Amino acid sequence: MAEVINMPRLSDTMEEGTLATWLKKVGDKVEEGDILAEIETDKATMEFESFNEGTLLHIGIQEGETAKVDSLLAIIGEEGEDISDLLNGTSSDDENVKSEEKTEDKAEEATEVDSSADSSEELPEGVTIVTMPRLSDTMEEGTVATWLKSVGDEVEEGDILAEIETDKATMEFESFQSGTLLHIGLQEGESAKVDALLAIIGPAGTDVSGVAKNFKAGASALDAESKTESKAAPKEEKKEEPKKEVTKPSASKANETSASTSGGRIFVSPLAKKMAEEKGINLSQVKGTGENGRIVKRDIENFTPSQASSTAGKFVPTGTEDYDEVPNSNMRKAIAKNLAKSKFTAPHYYLNVEFDMDNAIAFREQYNSLPDTKISFNDMIVKACALALKQHPQVNSQWFDDRMKMNNHVHIGVAVAVPDGLVVPVVKFANEQSLTQIGAAVKEFAGKAKNKKLTLDEMEGSTFTISNLGMFGIESFTSIINQPNSAILSVGAIVSKPVVKNGKVVPGNTMKLTMACDHRTVDGATGAQFLQTLKGYIENPVTMLV
User: Fold this and answer.
1) Which of these, 54, 448, 478, 506, could form a disulfide with 76 (CB 3.0-4.6 Å)?
2) pLDDT tens digits, 400-420
3) Is 519 a catalytic residue?
4) Is 523 a catalytic residue?
5) Which is catalytic among the residues 82, 401, 402, 519?
């Protein structure tokens, strides 16, 4: 049966989108996971992935046209299927009625006027439903990391309601309404699908228990997915007593899991609390430097555990089997999905090289002797790759099912390890930036990645990726291509060893690099020529300054 695809909300503030490029045309076969189109939002141009399979029967928005969120974008169904009823806004059977009602429900939720599937249940005056937002283009569900407001708190438009963990990062979610927080639909640590009930805001004292209950019963815009309905039900049962939540001041709520010291609770900011949990830091051992001894972010960052606590591990009796279960984060699940797709769809092959690093070491030492200047070897590699990619656009290309994109700009993704996995912030127009600018950008990204503060715009648009494990002493390794890019460069450690120069064995320094290439876009000879150019820049880094 034909499915209506609407203009998605690809950012938290997106109200309309511009269709930049269609990657499928009417009549094309569409598989689940295929990229249908590139959509320009208020923040970036993003790829829109299909969650349906079938034939693209209709395109509702042409390239260059702009439309509101939830406008008709496309229709996917069986080849030759009659979709005239869908186009005319009517339905010839129950399935089409459901599809139309689902579309209407989504539009109502996007404007946050009414999110109940029961049209007879009206919201009390001034009450607004807040649903789980789609904060990334691939986000299917979100986890509430921290509530920054409690039930009973006053909320102003622009206040940060909560920090929500997506498949890419933890992001602040801003309120677009003013009023009192009357109901919280998800507790900290709980996950739910996009468009699930997140909160209810309205005039103080308004009874919204019926609204919350009806929202659950109707399952909102995701009523076609019974698993969402069953998942939402138990979460609502936990929160039948809003009065309890009203009596908790914000500081107390943030400290519910904190240990008590001699005579009182530990006061800690939500961000510091989350950082402490991620690092396994006992808050009772941290001295707060904030107002009234409150533990803040800098206290967690500067905390050094005692020798006893840093060396002590979990006690497990001899001969006892023991394990801890750790739920997969949204980021970890997204990494698993994307890398598995890349590994099993892109025909990877690998090119291995070893560069002489003596000149690079001397160059970096001289460069860093300048006032207020400090660059890393990784910064030099980013710059060298950017210059080499301009000369070898095939390696800077991207693969799509119906075409290959030859990028004339160079945006280099730099893989950064975080506790939940891996993020890839992007150095935009890297070939146009100086070594110092690249160094500053990478350092800033690393700090944001550590605190889960990278924005979507900072992680999108890469045309080539670099992964460096040299700082961990890894001499050589291979990486999985970050699709839709055509290649990724794995950088190993600089190793001091005997080398042959001018027929003599002398002390030297070398570095091994491995480039994984997608054979659909980059032939072996093309990849080899790119690495030869890269070798020229790395072994003679002064040429990067020309």
Assistant:
1) 54
2) 988 999 999 999 999 998 877
3) yes
4) yes
5) 519
